[in-house]
Design goal:
With 836 residues, the chain is of the alpha+beta class. It contains 26 helices and 35 strands. Strand 34 and strand 35 (831-835) form a beta hairpin. The chain binds one RNA strand of 84 nucleotides through helix 7, strand 9, helix 10, strand 13 and helix 11.
Length: 836
RNA sequence: GCGGACGUGGCGGAAUCGGUAGACGCUGGAGACUUAAAAUCUUCUGCCAUUGGCGUGCGGGUUCGAGUCCCGCCGUCCGCACCA
């Protein structure tokens, strides 16, 4: 071979064409090989891919290619999460059609992804905005409806006044819309809900068992589901309010029932509403509660406020004991039953409330030191202890007391043990055009009528106008007018569309099996699922993953698939970050505008800001396509895998990509340097086999940065080694080791070296276990725990021999000054510690 | 406030079981090659210093031995948030 430079642009295009033509990465359903499903979260077609996509898909690609080399049939598909608001925003701002905008973006981004040489099965590409996807989703929605997992209710919803749509609770962050950032209002609308709460307990126990998920994500899911166990019971009221003689409350601390000082209901509780109907003061108070801010800072400082209704509640264990009933601003209607009883000594909010309104504060749990009923501490005590001042509960541990109170409530028929979840049912109705139409028809005579299966898909009309705010489907002249499938009379289509999280809740099943006539084939889908390794951003740790887990369970529940957890392995990768730059007058500057700390346009010095996630607002983005054109796909891929552990942030740098490019060239020179060497080099053989085993383990653990470091070490060792047959063999094996990471270079080298077929189809090199073990070891010699010398000895020496060798060391002799060590610790093949 | 993660050279990081801290890369220095530059190659690069000493956020502890284990702080980041 001659000494040439690796022409990345030429090689990239050539091998991408070869893989495409041969359909190298098309997954075969009928393959006899063990199957493996590797999936990265599919992108929203926003316009162009960004570095985050490149990092995400490179990681999955390395794993997919590695598993193919290990002899597995790998499903590694790609598609488009193509419905959503940005398309409508583009329509409104630029006057383009959401469909055209989306499909153009898909074409652009697909070309960008192809340019990176990902081992994707493009034959299974799907876009959620096409009827051949969302039509099947409509069919699934109707199946859920048939099985009672979908219901409609009039409910107060979170209305985003900017996006003019309803948001799920999960999409409201600190009282603001998750996309628009606008303050969310409450509105009453008829909405479709999916019964995710029916699976709350199952989703919770399931997540605990997902051992290949990050602990962090498991915990986030657990907290989101938020299971609490306690007691619901009814207080008898001194007067009937709105037809009710009792008020129901929920507590997780029934053990503190004798410490109760008051009862409090939420501002929108029916009792509060009934009182407000006759009391302007109460109505004014409720209005005031609603105005309270919901941001973190505001909640932190907000005063506990109450309105004394004048009504009292009877303590269940003492008919003579009357507790005042308040309307309180800190009680939430949508958690538990919207009413509580307050125990000021043992709950901080109740404590603050009691102080403000001069209510009794009575100790009923002893922390071991104090047990008098008088409570003079500065904050509530909510820790463990023994129940005191509580009649029949006295002396019990709080856990026993909880059980005792629940038992007595159930026996007395005035309460029952209860489990309450923070999780709410999933409201899926959106007043939006660019989404999956909800396949329902409303008939004045027949009511709610599902669209018959033979009329699916309900296709979105193309001719819509975005001239005025609101849902274009609602304003379309003809689309919603339809004959009732049951009675044939005039009826109206549902004009709401599904939350786009529905689209991403089952796409991984459709990837596995995509028949024309149904959402998926059960047997084929089951042959691929669950996804063994799912990779994506931590921003989807709660919503998307929870909804997909629910959707899969729902399908399981109705017998459509025998899988309940869709993703057995999950990995959340870090972000790609970049330095930020600000000009002297405070403008953000793009990396291209800056050279050597100087703004190119003005010649003025720039301020170096923090390293942050690439974002348009900070102008610190680097477009992948330009970089790929400059350095080739392999250099970009190699940089994405180098240095930073994949779960942490990766700081993009010019120096970093150049280093990666240099290594790609260095590998090429290394590959060219293979010759007709003769003889064995056992040390190099060992290094090679250790590297093969180490890189394999690292890739399996997704520790790409470690795999990269090991490959550097091996390359260093080969370059230093004298020519030998071992060296030539090592070089050939390096091609295989780097093939998942820099596949174009590997194919080029493989072909030049006369390799058989494609390296993409080659087998991962076998490891000779005998060569993993060194025959010599370096032993550390410590005196009093400090390193003083090292010795190279044959592996497996006896303790006595190692000790003797250590004591013979010149340095040791000098430090010991003739004294005999009091104690000698020998760790075979590792170290000797002489304690003087 | 609650929960969690993290803290190692100028930088990204490695150290898988408590056993040689700083692998590997980046940056930087010196040299070779070149008319010159780039590329490439060689070599050095934790800190202080003269033998030697000090070093994994800080302070303690356990141990022959601690980046790793325990206790107490400090800092950074993330999630949730009046959840009864």
């Amino acid at each position: 071979m001659s000494n040439t430079r690796f022409n990345a642009l030429k090689a990239d295009a050539h091998w991408q064409q070869v893989w495409d033509d041969a359909k190298t990465f098309a997954a075969r359903d009928d393959s006899p090989k063990p199957k493996s499903y590797v999936l990265e979260m599919f992108p929203y077609p926003s316009g162009r891919i960004h570095m985050g996509h490149v990092r995400n898909y490179t990681m999955g690609d390395v794993l997919a290619r590695y598993r193919r080399m290990k002899g597995m049939e790998v499903l590694h598909p790609m598609g488009w999460d193509a419905f959503g608001m940005p398309a409508e925003n583009a329509a409104m701002e630029k006057g383009v059609h959401p469909g055209g905008w989306t499909r153009d973006n898909i074409a652009t981004m697909k070309a960008q992804l192809k340019r990176l040489g990902f081992a994707l099965d493009w034959t299974r590409e799907l876009a959620t905005c096409e009827p051949d996807y969302y039509g099947h989703e409509q069919a699934l929605f109707l199946k859920f409806y048939e099985h009672g997992l979908v219901y409609r209710k009039e409910s107060a919803v979170n209305w985003d006044p900017v996006d003019m749509t309803v948001l799920a609770n999960e999409q409201v962050i600190d009282g603001r819309g998750w996309r628009s950032g606008a303050l969310v209002e409450k509105r009453k609308l008829s909405q479709w809900f999916l019964k995710i709460t029916a699976f709350a307990d199952d989703l919770l126990s399931g997540v605990k068992a997902l051992e290949h998920w990050p602990d962090k994500v498991r915990l986030m899911q657990e907290n989101w589901i938020g299971k609490s166990q306690g007691l619901t019971f009814r207080f008898a009221l001194s007067a009937s309010v709105g037809g009710a003689d009792t008020v129901e409350v929920f507590t997780t601390r029934p053990d503190t029932i004798f410490g109760a000082s008051f009862v409090a209901v939420a501002a929108d509780h029916p009792i509060a509403q009934a009182i407000a109907a006759n009391s302007p003061e109460a109505a004014a108070f409720i209005e005031r509660c609603k105005q309270g801010g919901t941001t973190a800072a505001e909640l932190e400082t907000q005063e506990k406020l109450g309105f004394d209704t004048g009504i009292t509640a009877n303590h269940p264990f003492d008919p003579a004991w009357q507790l005042p009933v308040y309307i309180a601003n800190f009680v939430l209607m949508d958690y538990g039953v919207g009413a509580v009883y307050g125990v000021p000594a043992h709950d901080q909010r109740d404590f603050e409330f009691a102080r403000k309104y001069g209510l009794p504060i009575r100790r009923v749990v002893s922390d071991g030191a104090k047990d008098a009923p008088e409570f003079h501490e500065d904050e509530a005590y909510s820790g463990p202890g023994t129940v005191v001042n509580s009649h029949f509960l006295d002396g019990m541990d709080i856990e026993d007391a909880k059980r005792e109170v629940i038992r007595r409530a159930e026996d007395g028929g005035w309460g029952e043990g209860a489990t309450v979840y923070r999780l709410r049912d999933w409201g899926v109705s959106r007043q939006r055009y660019w989404g999956t139409p909800i396949p329902i028809i409303h008939c004045a005579a027949c009511g709610v009528v599902p669209v018959p299966a033979d009329q699916l898909p309900v296709v979105l009309p193309e001719d819509v106008s975005f001239a005025t705010p609101g849902n274009p489907l609602d304003k379309h002249p003809t689309w919603k007018h339809v004959a009732c499938p049951t009675c044939g009379g005039e009826a109206l289509r549902e004009t709401d569309t599904l939350d786009t999280f529905a689209d991403s809740s089952w796409y991984f099943i459709r990837f596995a099996s995509q028949p024309k006539d149904k959402p998926f084939d059960k047997a084929v889908a089951e042959s691929w699922l669950p996804v063994g390794q799912y990779i994506g951003g931590v921003e989807h740790a709660i919503l998307h993953l929870l909804y997909a887990r629910f959707w899969t369970r729902a399908l399981n529940h109705i017998g459509m698939i025998d899988v309940s957890e869709p993703f057995t392995g999950l990995f959340t990768q870090g972000m790609v970050t970049h330095e930020t730059y600000k000009s002297a007058d405070g403008r953000w500057l793009a990396p291209d505008d800056v050279r050597d700390g100087i703004e190119i346009a003005t010649g003025a010095a720039v301020t170096l800001g923090r390293v942050e996630k690439m974002s348009k607002s900070k102008k610190n983005t680097v477009d992948p396509t330009g970089i790929v054109d400059q350095y080739g796909a392999d250099a970009v891929r190699w940089f994405m895998l180098s240095d930073s552990p994949p779960e942490r942030d990766l700081p993009w740098s010019e120096a970093g990509i150049e280093g990666a490019w240099r290594f790609v060239q260095r590998l090429w020179r290394l590959f060219e340097g293979a010759g007709a060497g003769e003889g064995a080099d056992t040390a190099l053989d060992r290094k090679l086999h250790q590297t093969i085993a180490g890189v394999a383990a690292d890739i399996e653990a997704l520790s790409f940065n470690k795999a990269v470091a090991k490959i550097y070490e091996l390359a260093n060792a080969i370059e230093k080694a004298a020519p030998s047959a071992s060296r030539d063999n090592a070089i050939r094996n390096v091609m295989l080791l780097v093939a998942p990471m820099v596949p174009h270079l590997a194919e080029e080298a493989w072909a030049a070296a006369g390799g058989t077929g494609l390296i993409a189809d080659a087998a991962w090199p076998a490891v000779d276990a005998a060569l993993l073990v060194e025959d010599e070891v370096t032993i550390a010699i410590q005196v009093n725990g400090k390193l003083r010398d090292t010795l190279v000895l044959p592996k497996g020496q006896s303790k006595e021999a190692i000790e003797a060798a250590a004591l013979a060391s010149d340095k040791v002799i000098r430090i010991l000054e003739g004294k005999t060590p009091k104690k000698v610790i020998v760790v075979p093949d590792r170290l000797v510690n002489l304690v003087a």
